[in-house]
From TrEMBL:
Keywords annotated in UniProt: ATP-binding, Helicase, Hydrolase, Isomerase, Nucleotide-binding
Catalyzed reactions per annotation: ATP + H2O = ADP + phosphate + H(+); Couples ATP hydrolysis with the unwinding of duplex DNA by translocating in the 3'-5' direction
GO biological process, alphabetically ordered: recombinational repair
Binding residues for ATP: 34-41
UniProt xrefs under CDD domains: DEXQc_UvrD
EC code: 5.6.2.4
Protein name, as recorded: DNA 3'-5' helicase
Molecular function GO terms recorded: 3'-5' DNA helicase activity; ATP binding; DNA binding; hydrolase activity
Record-stated family: Belongs to the helicase family. UvrD subfamily.
Pfam family, one: UvrD-helicase
A GO-annotated cellular component: cytosol
PANTHER family assigned to the protein according to its UniProt record, in alphabetical order: DNA 3'-5' HELICASE (PTHR11070:SF3), UVRD / RECB / PCRA DNA HELICASE FAMILY MEMBER (PTHR11070)
UniProt domain UvrD-like helicase ATP-binding: residue ranges: 13-306
Length: 685
């Protein structure tokens, strides 16, 4: 049967889209190795649409993407394609595609639905990294480990170690030896700490990020449970498979042990999340996990970039130790070679970029079609100053998350505590917002209500902290109101009204912060319930922070600033990459092992392959070092990133900026015109 909606696909894309459809025999698992810009997202969307048009039940289709935004964009694309085949029915079909989201989000939903079976309280709340670190800290303190003679690892390090053990399914000793050798002497204490941490989470009815995968994977190890969950889905499709970890791969294997109905898509050359225990081996070992082996389809035709950009990107990734994907090709006419731009320092780097961005805008290119990418959020500081000074609006992705701001966390602590009054970290934060309530009195109250069947009712009877009488009563009343109210999202206004007097007292810039609270209320309006709002927001927080002007409305034009990690999956007409120097790329944090170094190389590759027409890699000759005050002038001399050795220079156009004018250059050649030295000597003759 002809399918005109597949006509735009190239032969390899079509092979991937049609795999196993229209045949009666069970098809093997499918692995699509999709090079950068080769239409991975496009292909996956067509495959989902094709399955639906072929009669697959959208409610029995599980689609897992790297972010919630990717899932909703995928939903829209699928609907557009299905519409071509089925007309008006498309909306109904794609609306029924309800099992689309991130691994963690889907995990949370399944765990809640099966909570009884798993011995979980279905009202469990989810701790983000900061909450988890706070709880580890609390437990560490209770065990007396914070008072050890030599310094015990910090709460953040403890959490990283715990998380790596869990996600990589690796023993503590091995994780310590491989990634945290300076903590190796603390193995016994860390084990004790992690055991107590797990118990505390269970008592408080909270799960952390890792638990969502861990509980899910553990439950799937039970054949009865696995069969139950697996029977809900005919098709499981996973995007960005190169960034999944061992736990995720074991979950998939338990969902589809024979491989039939399983599709994963990814690019080993773009694997950049090993710090979250993602393992590039997942994608490399995938075909052999099934019998018969998975079918592998490779997409190597790039539709995004000019050949000149691709050649340079291929050159960089060609030097990688292990390569699995082929070089990309395109039939887009060769544009100009990517610019490798030498500048004096970070200030000149910022000025260079602003000049180029404005030139492009003059030539008709929107700011939004241009992006500045960097390895670490702090690298864009000087550029942000220059943009603000020149009044160029920008939005930054991948820096401080909206939810990390203290006032947002305060308000969310209130909602989380209403949702789950056993969430001690939320309660602890919430109570200390009140003037006169410190850690000791908060602990006392939390101990008092811990055993009660209805902790919120028990709160009203708990002795009020002595120095906080009136404000304390207000908090108890607010909690009771919210507990009783069923009006979502209206209750957020009640929560905000309770918080505002405290906001004014705690923060000097309360006016700006209040605008964030109102924005939070608007975001909340998009969710059907408090529980869904808290879950989704914790799992996948909005990550745009903007300049003082606030987040621009959608129709405004603004320049994109983004960490390379957050630029994943995106594309722009012009791309500028900051600090292409050793120490930044590779980051000096990432030069320990050869695996880390290889991942840094892939990061540069990901950055370069975001560009469609125009790519600039900027190389400042010197840098100001961090860890000094704003007026400090310590700097280091930097050299071009080792990922662009001399033999690749032919793939770039080398530029020095600012350009020296012809007159100035001639003057330089003639020697100094002002002989200040002679004048100084003359003063004493
Ligand atoms: N068959 C095709 N014909 C024309 N254009 C295509 C085709 N497939 C994809 N494209 C275009 O190629 C570009 C890249 O597609 P897409 O974003 O799906 O790539 P990707 O493989 O997900 O990229 P990356 O992994 O680098 O993020 C898009 O602009 C898309 O519209």
């Amino acid at each position: 049967m002809p399918h005109p909606y597949l006509d735009g696909l190239n032969p390899e894309q079509r092979l991937a889209v049609e795999h196993g459809i229209g045949t009666t025999a069970a098809a093997p698992a499918l692995l699509v190795i999709a090079g950068a810009g080769s239409g991975k997202t496009n292909t996956l969307a067509h495959r989902v649409a094709h399955l639906l048009v072929d009669g697959a039940d959208p409610r029995r289709l599980l689609l897992m993407t790297f972010s919630r935004r990717a899932a909703s964009e995928m939903g829209l694309r699928v609907e557009r394609i299905v519409r071509k085949a089925m007309g008006a029915q498309a909306g109904v079909i794609s609306d029924a595609l309800t099992w689309a989201g991130t691994f963690h989000g889907i995990g949370a939903r399944l765990l809640r639905e099966h909570a009884d079976q798993l011995g979980l309280d279905p009202a469990f709340t989810i701790h983000d990294r900061e909450d988890s670190a706070d709880l580890i800290n609390l437990v560490r303190h209770e065990l007396g480990l914070s008072k050890t003679e030599s310094r015990f690892p910090t709460k953040g390090t403890c959490l990283s170690i715990y998380s790596r053990c869990v996600n990589a399914e690796t023993a503590l000793e091995q994780v310590l030896g491989g990634s945290f050798p300076w903590c190796a002497g603390w193995a016994a204490e860390l084990k004790q700490l992690f055991a107590a941490y797990v118990e505390a989470k269970q008592q408080h009815c909270v799960l952390d990020y890792d638990d969502l995968l861990l509980y899910w994977a553990q439950a799937m190890a039970d054949p009865g449970f696995a069969a139950d969950v697996a029977s809900r889905f005919d098709h499981v499709l996973v995007d960005e498979y190169q960034d999944t970890n061992r736990l995720q791969s074991s979950i998939l294997l338990a969902l589809k042990p024979s491989g039939t109905g399983l599709t994963v898509v990814g690019d080993d050359a773009q694997s950049i999340y090993s710090f979250r225990a993602a393992s590039v081996r997942n994608i490399l070992d995938f075909p052999g996990q099934f019998s018969p082996r998975a079918t592998v389809v490779t997409l190597d035709r790039n539709y995004r970039s000019t050949q000149a950009i691709l050649s340079a990107a291929n050159g960089v990734i060609d030097l990688a130790k292990e390569r699995f994907t082929k070089n990309l090709w395109t039939d887009r006419a060769t544009g100009s070679a990517p610019h490798l731009v030498g500048v004096r320092d970070e200030t000149d780097q910022a000025r260079y970029i602003v000049e180029r961005v404005l030139d492009n805008r003059e030539a008709g290119s929107l700011l939004k079609q241009q992006a500045v990418l960097f390895r670490t959020s702090s690298h864009s500081g000087p550029l942000e100053i220059e943009l603000t000074r020149r009044n160029i609006p920008f939005v930054k992705f991948g820096g401080l998350k909206f939810l990390d701001a203290a006032h947002i966390k305060d308000l969310l602590a209130l909602l989380r505590f209403v949702q789950n009054p056993r969430d001690r970290v939320a309660g602890f934060r919430l109570m200390q917002i009140i003037e006169g309530v410190g850690p000791a009195s908060a602990q006392r109250v939390l101990d008092h209500i811990a055993a009660a069947a209805d902790p919120i009712a028990a709160l009203a009877e708990a002795p009020a902290p002595p120095r906080a009488a009136a404000d304390w009563r207000d908090l108890v009343t607010a909690l009771q109101d919210l507990h009783r109210s069923a009006g979502w999202p209206a209750e957020l206004e009640r929560a905000r009204l309770w918080y505002e007097p405290h906001l004014d007292r705690i923060h000097e810039d309360a006016v700006t912060r209040r605008a964030d609270l109102i924005q939070l209320e608007q975001i909340a309006g998009g969710y059907p319930s408090r529980e869904r709002f808290l879950t989704e927001l914790t799992l996948d927080p909005p990550d745009a922070t903007s300049d003082q002007a606030g987040v621009p409305t959608l129709d405004e034009d603004y320049l994109i600033l983004s960490t390379i990690h957050s630029a994943k999956g995106q594309e722009w007409k012009s791309v500028y990459v900051l600090n292409v120097v050793d120490g930044c790329m590779p980051s000096d944090l990432g030069t320990g092992t050869s695996a880390e170094l290889e991942e840094e190389r892939r990061l540069l590759y990901v950055a370069m392959t975001r560009a469609k027409d125009d790519l600039h890699l900027v190389v400042p000759q010197r840098f100001f070092t961090h860890g000094q005050n704003a007026q400090g002038d310590r700097h280091v001399y930097a050299s071009r990133s080792r990922f662009i050795p001399d033999r690749l220079l032919g793939l770039f156009e080398r530029v020095s900026w600012p350009r020296v004018s012809a007159a100035a250059a001639a003057a330089q050649r003639q020697g100094p015109r002002l002989d200040i030295g002679a004048r100084m000597r003359g003063m004493w003759r």
